[in-house]
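Encoded backbone
================
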Amino acid sequence: MTSLLVQLTRPLYESLATTYRAALGKKLSHYGLRFDDLQDPLKDEDVAEALRRLPPDVIVARNCRLRRALDLSLKHDGLPADLLEKQTPELSYLQEVLEEVRAERRERALLGAPAPYTRIYYD
């Protein structure tokens, strides 16, 4: 029964997901961001580890995009039209490394070993 329900709702879900992704991409382009820039390393240890593994030039570019977006947002402004058409919010730089980190975490969990980069919180 559930597989039939999934088959019936999948086209609607995919249509809504495509529409949402396009709208979000347009909003991100307005500020010069990419989808991967929305990943928060403070909330997800895997994202923090994936960012640590990226080359320094990619990190610098990410930080510049985030600073520019913050500046534009505070000014209630957007990118100029000539820069707006050059934006590529769908271009990914983090997902491949993030999948690798998550696969390593799953493998360590199967082996019963803790992740070497797990945060410890003290009260």
